[in-house]
Amino acid sequence: MALADTIxxxxxxxxxxxxxxxxSQTGGDAYVRATLEAIIEDPxxxxxxxxxxxxxxxxxxxxxxxTNPDIxxxxxDGVGSDQDKLRKIAPIGRQILLLTALxxxxxDDVAEITEVERDSVPGLLENAIAEIDQEMRTNVLIIEDxxxxxxxxxxxxxxxxxxxxxxxxxxxxxxxxVDQCKPGLVLADIQLADGSSGIDAVKDIxxxxxxxxxxxxxxxxxxxxxxxxxxxxxxxxxxxPNAIRAxxxxxLFFTVEAQNI
Length: 261
Prior knowledge:
The chain is built from 13 helices and five strands. It is of the alpha/beta class.
């Protein structure tokens, strides 16, 4: 199989991870491009000792750890402006949390990707989760038409100390909830109860004011096509609670960073 064909199925999810790590579509995609350029320069880097998905993330991680800030410094969104900020944004524990909760890698996989001792992974993961509990609180709008999932999201949100400002099952209800209370974060499905679109609802909300958005969907491929602007934070159903926790933490972290720039 050609190397390009081997890599292609894994690229959408590497882009998802990169965007969650950097808090930016442009910044994350720049890191993915740098990863691909490294593979083109040295095709043997993919090797034969690991699955393509693991090896692709491993190469990405090495670039992340040794990056020149200029790789993404030209994106214009403030991400990657200096090496210290990159380390503050995603120390190794946060990377491990995203790799396990968002991307579903095992402890052994994560140890191989990050080149961290396997026995150290659980402790780093536990510390990263504990850090989330100390972060800022906000109002959250949940746009989800499946009652059980909506309830689960609400429980996760409130357990983190946030307030659910409203829940909506249609595009119209989402806009009505926003009129009542502007949220500091939106969790949105893409396919809603009356056939309306969560994507359209989010688009209309963003036309009113800027707010971080996390899409939670059983159809991630619809938002990972590479053919149009894609979300920075995207979680696949069924999800782990820690995936929601990690995404919320990253989204709010970058919101605060942007306000402080």
